[in-house]
User: Fold these one by one.
Assistant:
Number 1:
Amino acid sequence: MDTARTPYHRDTAAVRARRFARRPLAAFAPRALATLLYSAIAFPLALAGCLLTLAGLLVGGVLSVTTLGLWVLALTVRGALALGALQRALARRLLHLPIEEPPAPGAHGTHGVLGRRRALLLGRTGWRAVGCALGVPVTAALAYAVALGAYGYGTQSLLHPLLKRWNHHTVRDGDSVRHVSLEVLGVQLDTWPRWLIPVAAGLLLLSAAPWLMRHALIPHRLLLAATLGPSAADRRIRTLEETRAQAVDDAAATLRRIERDLHDGTQARLVGLAMHLTMIRELIGADADRDRLLTVVDTAQGNAKQAIADLRHLVKGIHPPVLDQGLDTALATLAADVALPVEVVTDIADRPAPAVESIAYFCAAELLANAAKHSGASGARVRVTARAGLLALTVRDEGRGGAAIGAGSGLTGLLTRVRTVDGTLTCDSPPGGPTVVTVELPY
């Protein structure tokens, strides 16, 4: 037993030793060096921007009783916005921190120079950028200090045996002259084996440098994201604009589809029905044989039935009639038509608004169709609950998983439909399953 375990322990120890030896090198990996470069650039840039912004606010405040002061303040806000754009670009490029661009002040309804100045002075985006310019030197200084300590002192301590020949000061003790490079508590660390202490300290600092830099930049990241990106109100407005535009496009597409279906299907069948009725009338007037007359009647009857079926299918696509009986009944009817066993559990005390019922129904229909077509599951479960003004629809299947929102997925269309009523859609579908899609709609 011991003999069999010996190679394993030796391999484990060797792997750990190699990992430990590579830790100082991680401080010079491309991503770590990019973080170091950002810290070296961010602090001087933030300090210069803070001083210029502060000077502009002071001058503009003093001259605010005149028109010139308003122009100085507007120019200061514009400079803060430009500085924020540069900081966003640096953060995205070097820190891999994507920050959405906020709406431009006065993007809508401003005309002329005075209108743009008014938009700058009254817009929230510009003053949030001013606040960032005034506060960001503090967070950037923390990262700068950590970078200087971890990389600067770490590298200097690691190279102490080489640098001590040049990095030293002369101490005269009577007639003797000594060169002292590093001394701690009266103990010189310039000779073997004492210089192993600064070398070990340098290795430790460089090993911890990436971790220290990541944590030192957390306040800086949070400040940039909170002040240079869109506010919650801006995101809400942007979402409403996107969903409104998508709703308009969907309505136009639906109208085109209805027009096409009526023109190519129902209208053609009704035209055929009219032609056959005309033929029946002519045959009756010509006293034609009974078999031929019955054949034309059967054809006309078939066209009428098919036209009725087409109209029912078209109406069902707009608003399923079964929804008039309630969402629970509609989901039970829907589950009975799916090609795999579906369990439906509903807990709805008060009936939702018709629009919410319709969206929940079509979401369930699309999700069950996807489960039957793509997941390979042997069954699915639909659960609907209504609590605290929120209707929650959950569709779960034990299929192969791997579903995701985006990239042309049908879930993207459902998300757009859900967002028209300020709802949310989440998808949890790891490879191997299960797939759980949750739709939450305002009650």
Note: The first helix runs from residue 2 to 26.
Number 2:
Amino acid sequence: MLTVTTVNVNGLRAAAKKGFLPWLEATTADVVCLQEVRAEAGQLPEEVRAPEGWHVLHAPAAAKGRAGVSLYSRREPSASRIGFGSEEFDGSGRYAEIELPGVTVASLYLPSGEVGTERQEEKERFMEAFLEHMVKLREKAAADGREVLICGDWNIAHTERDLRNWRANQKNAGFLPEERAWLSRVYDEAGYTDVVRHLTPEGEGPYTWWSYRGRAFDNDSGWRIDLHVATRGLAARAAHTRVERADTHPERWSDHAPVTVAYDLG
């Protein structure tokens, strides 16, 4: 089994003080993908930067205090890469990948966007460039007899089942028709599968992000935006999934919850 967890930590230094480290010590995951790290490696405590038993790849953003992704792997990768060949985005701390036996695992932090602003234009440029990368990555992996798994905060809820308050968000970034259509292209044209939805085809959610404002967490008024997106061969081997939602609001160490999937590679 290969067990992979993805979580947006909403600032790794802050998360480390709130409970990330005990979680990391207890997890059974073989690979952990982090997003919104918001720190350079040298700014992290040693037990977070390079915890015992893990091989770690940090990809900070050139803009200090923003974005940043990391991958923790119990097995030493045969190769690693930061960025996906984009002059605009390779220094933005939004993508990194590692090579493990038979599978490429990536951590993605797709821009959140904001309607009517440069941030939304940036998100659209990223989406266009990243879709092209996904197609090339899948084709290369297929030629090499490998699978691909891109985990992360995709910042798009695909359908009405993926956020509780969808009616009020139809004109907001994260649930725009064009964003949702782009995610459909990821699945229909680029040849990938939403693994958690594949494993849980019925019902709403499971949600992975809840605003700190109001009682969103207590009311489970959330969004499902933290995804495992895999090539179809790997998605077919997904055995089970869980969202590691905290029991109570004070026990949260991020506004996102870890999303874990076990893949049967045997």
Note: The chain has a mean pLDDT of 96.
